[in-house]
Amino acid sequence: MSINEWEGNLVKTLLTTLLTAASVLAVGVSSAQDSEAPAATPAAQAMCCMDSSAHMGQMDGHMKRMQALHEQRASATTPEDRQRLMQ
């Protein structure tokens, strides 16, 4: 077997391997996109929305507290004031 034949076989083998791997990946991606999540029951949706509303209220309160702390720290003029606010 000459070097040219060996290189030709190597290229064919690599090309076949790469095409096979690309085909397998393409099939995996397309099959993953076809699946749909099961529909939630009405009771589960109602609980979800109630929890979501309560959670949003908590998040709003937390954001307001964090904003107030930020404004206090930003308005501190001396390093001592900043240090006192950090504690």
Please give the alpha-carbon distance between the first and last residues: 79 Å
Which structural class is indicated by helix and strand composition? mainly alpha
Reading the helices and strands in chain order gives HHH
Spans of 5+ residues with little confidence (pLDDT < 50)? none
Give the number of DSSP strands: 0
Mean pLDDT: 79
Fraction of residues in helix: over 70%
Major sheet size, sense and barrel closure: none
Shape: elongated
Query: Roughly what fraction of the amino acids lie in strands?
Result: under 5%
Radius of gyration: 31 Å
Task: Count the DSSP helices.
Answer: 3
Describe it.
The structure is a single chain. With 87 residues, this protein is mostly helical. It contains three helices and no strands. The mean pLDDT is 79.
